[in-house]
Structure formats: C-alpha cells, structure tokens
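Forwarding these from the shared drive since the link keeps breaking.
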Amino acid sequence: MTNVLICGIGGQGTVLAAKLLDAAAINAGLTVHSAETIGMAQRGGSVTSHVRIGENCWSPLIPFGQADAIIAFEMCEAVRNLDYLKKDGLVVVNRKIIRPVNSILAGKNFDEGEMLACLKSRSCNVITVDTDSICSELGSSKVVNTILLGTAVRHGINGITMENVVEAVMSSVKEKFVDLNIRALNS
C-alpha cells in the first residue's frame, strides 16, 4: 500500500494532480482509491486529496501517520497536514507561501525557515520546489500541479513511473495543453 496526500489551496490544481496520480496508478495496473475534500475550494480554502494505491485498502482516507508522501502546493498546507506523514516519508513542497486571510487580518507572518524546520523535524526527505521559477521558464503558471507531481514521482512513489504519468496526462488533459504539462512533469 502506498499512501499519497496532496494538499493545497482551492484553485491550485490539487484535484487534477490527484486524478492524474489515480490514472497513472491504473495505467500501472494497480488498484487505487481516492477522496477529496474540496468544499472550500472556491473560497481559497484548504483542499486535500487522499490517494491510496495497492490492495487491501478498506477506506479511501489515509490514517494519520500513514502517508508515504505529501505533495504540498503551498508550504503552510504542508505543515498543516504533517500529522498524516509517516516517519521519514517523502515531502515535496512548493516554496510558495500563501498567507490565509485570517493571518493577514491579524498581522501574522509566516517564516519559510520555521516551516522548513518543522517539516524536516518529521522527515529527512523534504524536497522544496521553486515552482514560480519553473513556471516562468515554461511560460505558464497553470502547471504547478504537474511540476510537483513529476518531482514526487521522480523521487519515488512506489509502483508509479513517469511513463504512467505521461500516459495519464495524454488521456486527461486538453490536447492543446499536453505538451506544456509533459514539459512541466520533466522540469
């Protein structure tokens, strides 16, 4: 069983990333179960997707302490969902920090160094990705999801290859965006 938690803010593409991972698992001949919490997505709220790959899965939700990987589209969301990560699980996190509205109103700031220290206290396998720079190079800010998914697959999601994900992109993404998304996967 491989458990992957994908988290971010509504509108960042977390749900598509989960659907691509689901399709990649199916392409690899694996059993997959997934569930999303997307109720606040339209308001910029937290969005999480649970993806469970393998046999003998009785629930689509990942129990605390059982995620093999967290793919976080935003650093605060990585910290918020850290209880799901198993000891020394993989964390792929976007360096971007999006401050919640309530913290802006309260005048609170978030420190990247403190958040990274928190993540590294739970895992020695934390990979930060500067998606803003990569998106700038690719000419689109709409591929953060495939950048992070590609990074996670390259660093090890059991049973999933980059070829499985490319096949998922080709069958799930509008044709005019396939090339861009494949370049993002490989960046």
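-- next protein --
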Amino acid sequence: MRIANIEFPKYPVFLAPMEDVTNPDFRMLCKRFGADMVYTEFISCDALIRDIPRTLQKLTINDAERPVAIQIYGREPGPMADAAQMAESAHPDIIDINFGCPVKKVAGKGAGAGLLRDIPKMLEITRAVVNAVKTPVTVKTRLGWDDDHKIIVDLAEQLQDCGIQALAIHGRTRAQMYRGEADWSLIGEVKNNRRMRIPIIGNGDVTTPERAKECFDRYGVDAIMVGRASIGCPWIFRDIKYYLDNGNYAEPLTFDEKKEIIKSQVQSSIDWLDERRGILHVRRHLAATPIFKGIPNFKETRIAMLRAETKDELFKIIDKIHLSL
C-alpha cells in the first residue's frame, strides 16, 4: 500500500492522532513496537499561526519516527492553508486534516467533526490545504454528524476529488462521540466503491489482534488505526503486527517487562517535558494500562501511583507491584 510516495508493508497499522497522548515520546515508543505510521496530536491552526509556544512545540518530529503525519484542524480555509505551510516547514511526511474530533470545544465551534454539518466549507478547506503545500495531504473524519446523516460514502468521493492522498474513517458519527460500537460496514462500502482510488484507513475499536485481522479481511481496508487501545499498552502494535504476519500470537511479554516499558515511558515523558509535567502527562497511561488489572486489593496502590509527584516516588511504587499481590 502506498500513500503518495510512501511505501507501507502489507497490513499497515497506524497510531491514531490523540490529543494529550501522541506526543513525541509516545510516538517513538509505539514506533519501537511496530507502528507503521504515527500522527502528532491535533494542532489548532489558529494557535499555530499566532505562534503559541505550546502549539509550536507540537510540530517537533524526529527522523526516527518516520513516516509521521502532522494533523491540523480549523474552521476557515485561509488560516488552515497558512497553518499547513507552517506545518510543512517541520518536514512531516504527511499533513493530515482533522474533520473528526467530536469534542464540544472543537466541533461546537465549527471545526473537526463540526464541519460534517457544512460540507461545502469542509471541501473548501481541503482544497485550500492541498493547494498550499507540496507535502501529501490526507483527511481523517467520521461517518457523518448523526445516524440520520451518515454521508461518508458520497463525502469520500468529494474529498478524493479535492486532491487528498488517503482517507481515514472513524466508524462512528459525531453524535456517538466514543460511545457504542464502531460501525465498519460503511467503511467497507467506501473501500469497495469502484470510484475510490485512494487508500482507505479504518479506525474504531481495533483492540485485539483478531479484530485487526477481521478489519482487513472483512472490510478490505488498506490500513487500520489503533487509538485508545494503545494508551498504557504500546506493545499492542507488536501483538497485532505479529498476528497479522504469522497467523498466531507473539510470545507474551512478562509482567516485569511491561513494567519496565511503562517506566521507560515515564522517563521519556519527563525528558520531553520536565518532571512535574512529564508525570502529569503520563498519568493517563498509568490509569489505562491493562497490566495491573486483576491484581487483588490494588485500589490503594493505584491511587498512590496516580498521586506520585516525583519519578523516584512513582518508580518505588511500580517496583513494589507484583502479580502475587
């Protein structure tokens, strides 16, 4: 499978863009475990063109994480084109447009998934970004605004006509947010539309190796994205890739190996930010990681782990955790 001039292996598995999750240290970790492409956190075009320091920091990418996409969002063609040019100066492999974020502060202001209610403007933005840069442009969106407006089959053709190089589809509507099950049937319909010439990437509820294989086999997508299932579990890419390539399961990582991975993520987060902010950032991963599930009487330890304010304190707590608790 190819996106523009980027060649991917059979069964590509991508790390989905996630705000406050896919910063450089986490992207590098997922890359280490086999993610075929990674995406930045989504970047506000308005904040980018105003040179907001924290937003500019999101443009930081490393050669070791390539291929990497910078994702931007906004509600007007002009600022989005300007932001795309700024993003291009960071030399990503792809510039991705976010037309899928469902949260109120984004969609409610007419950006992200909010543009599913204004398709002419969505297409105008897409054309403006494509025309503003030489870097390949892709789009990530949803099935539609709600169950009565699942427009993705026709929308996919319209976006393709704007010149994008690939389309990622989350199998939910904006109204669903992240509730219920992702509906892949319409993703498959887009992929099987003979008028579609660009790669189709499926996203939503890819949480196991078996589900990943089903998405490829049943719906025919060119690639899949793993999002929330990677939080606190970056080795999911290793497990999925091995299963897709070999038809059986990779040898499981030990409990201690997984603890060391989590600790390395903490250290990388601290290195990227600083001790206080790095620990705050990684708490979401500590809360979500499946490695501590099933340990008896773990509630107090979990609370202590999430309240730890220094690396030494946090590591002492993690080191004392054993499956025999």
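The longest strand covers residues 68-73. The chain is about 40% helix and 15% strand.

- D.
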